Amino acid sequence: MIKFFNTILLLFSLVLVAQTKSEVYKIKYDKFENGKKTGENIAIYVYNQMVFLSKPTDKIQQYIDLKNNYNVTTIKDGNIVFKKIIPFDSLPKPKFDSDTRIIMGYKCQHATFSYFSNTIDVWFTEQTTVKGSPNSSYLPNKNALVLQLVVNGNYAFIASAINKENKYIPELNYDDKTKVVTTSEFEEIAINSRYKVLRIFDNEILNFDPNRVIPKESELATDKVYHFSKGSVVLKKIKITPELKNSSAIFAKLTSKSTGDAYDRTGSVFIIPAKKEENTTTLLDAYLHGLDKLPIYTDNKKNKYQGIKKEKDYTPAIEILRFFTPFGVNYFNDKRKINNYNWAKDVVYKEDVTSLIPTDEDEIWIGVFIGNYDAGGHTISLELDAYPSMKNNEEKPNKKKYVAPLFSTVNTMEMSGQNYGGLFANDTLKVNFEIKENLQNLQLLYTTTGHGGWGNGDEFVPRMNKVFVDGQEVFKIIPWRTDCATYRLSNPASGNFSDGLSSSDLSRSNWCPGTLTPPYIIPLKLPKGNHIIEVVIEQGPNEGPSTNHWNVSGVLVGELKD
Fold first, then answer.
1. How many CB atoms lie within 10 A of CB 19?
2. What average pLDDT does the segment 526-530 reach?
3. Average pLDDT score, the chain
């Protein structure tokens, strides 16, 4: 029986050796993980000394050109097909040893590749006219057919069938006129093609300009940029595109640089729903018509705060990104030259904001605030990057989001007179809210930063934060950052002290000049009905005109149950 089986394999080998160049062969590889077959497989085709590694529907097509001794990878961007060419002699070099094994009746030699700290083992035969590899980077030589490829000893592709195709002829998607690009250019095109970039603001200036004219509400339009609060806020109404609605991940990417302001400033990216219930107020009403439109919260010492928490007829903004400008990056680079200090050109902040984008809406207002009293101010650009799902098409669509802002003491109308959030020294921030739906995966996204920029101020003194829901403590933390010195090269205008430290080095209450402050994620299980949330902070005392305050925001996020 064994002799009969070996005879059949020998005859099959001879058939492969005798194939003509015009024949098409399909090599099927089964996938294994940790020695177990996964049920997945891949297939490559060999035709006219070309190895076709991709499915016809793949955005990126990969080929091994055995005739010309190079690999070709192509991508179509718009109406243009780009290709990169990698000669065989530029590929990772194999190391050969005496190890052999029999795969599908063929005696296979062993070669090892090392690439980006990965070890790739391949077993290959030279007994057939069919040549190729399931990976274009790991072909031991142009006369080899790789029958087994193993990555780091864990993931393996093992050939299970080699069949002649009688009806299918693979086609190239490029020709001599296809635009050739470098490897780095190709990588940029490929990465950018994988997700959708929605540009919101492009080089908009946020500065102090008391002569700014407030637009009329009747003139507001979609996709047009507006400046409010004496130039310190920029707003734009955007459509929730299909890419945003169907994405599995959305990131906000903000780029900022100084165009005159030397100081570290509080910044915020936020959303105001374009659609609102009748007789309700949003922050947009205050931008258009003044602070008087906002409800007033009065603390125990009769201090008044405008629009800091959810009321029956008022909904605060949804903060999606809290950031802090560095000390004068860009504008002061040439004004504060220090040997071996290579100042950054700008600062880029990027954060996952998937749960905070209300994708069930048709339109939203999105805004950026930087508090400053400088005529030059800061220049910002903002985009939303929408990443498609990597799940199969038959997977269920994304669940409907629940997004409910509860409070925000970030005074984005600071330049219009909105008060700082200094109530915690004598009061508790208490918010009544109602949950009307059955929810799952409910979380409170709690963002907190302390401010008071003198030696004993809350910017530089650790303070306890506590959050209570319905009288029960659900979270407590001393928010603190000790890594601020990491960002020294983004802070050219930072003051240098006699002890060798710079102001931007100093640890702070959950922020650093030139960084993001991500929210704390507090899981909650709350039924439908009325609830109370309380924020308690051990805010320190003021010293004369120097005042402490805390910028806190809280947004409930989750999913609606089916």
1. 15
2. 97
3. 94
How confident is the model over 28-61, as pLDDT tens digits? 999 999 999 999 999 999 999 999 999 999 999 9
557, 400 in Cβ contact below 8 A?
A: no
**Amino acid code (one letter) for 497:** F
The rounded distance, in Å, linking the Cα atoms of 332 and 85 is 43
Instruction: Give a three-class secondary structure readout of 282-321.
Output: CHHHHHHHCHHHCCEEECCCCCEEECCECECCECCCEEEE
| Close Cβ partners of 429 (under 8 Å, ≥ 6 residues apart) | 308, 309, 407, 409, 423, 534, 535, 552
pLDDT of residue 398: 66
pLDDT at 542 over 80: yes
Distance CA 69, CA 18 (A): 22
Please report, for residues 215, 308, 390, 420, 535, the alpha-carbon distance to residue 423 in angstroms, rounded to integers and kept in the order given: 32, 11, 46, 8, 11
Q: Tell me how far apart the alpha carbons of residues 355 and 445 are, in angstroms, rounded to a whole number.
A: 10
Whether 502 and 530 have beta carbons less than 8 Å apart is answered as no
Residue pair 174/65 in contact by the 8 Å Cβ criterion: no
- Nearest-CA neighbor of 349 among 515, 521, 189, 108? 515
Helix (H) or strand (E) holding 426: none
**How does residue 16 score in pLDDT terms, banded at 50, 70 and 90?**
very low
pLDDT at 448: 98
Model confidence at 350, pLDDT cuts 50, 70, 90, reads very high
Alpha-carbon gap, residue 151 to 118, rounded angstroms: 7
Q: What pLDDT is attached to residue 13?
A: 41
DSSP 127: S
Q: Is the pTM of this model over 0.85?
A: yes
How many Å apart are CA 121 and CA 110, to the nearest integer? Answer: 7
Q: Looking up tokens 């177990």, which residue turns up?
A: 36
96-103's contacts with Cβ under 8 Å and 24+ in sequence apart are: 96/140, 101/148, 103/147, 103/148, 103/158, 103/159
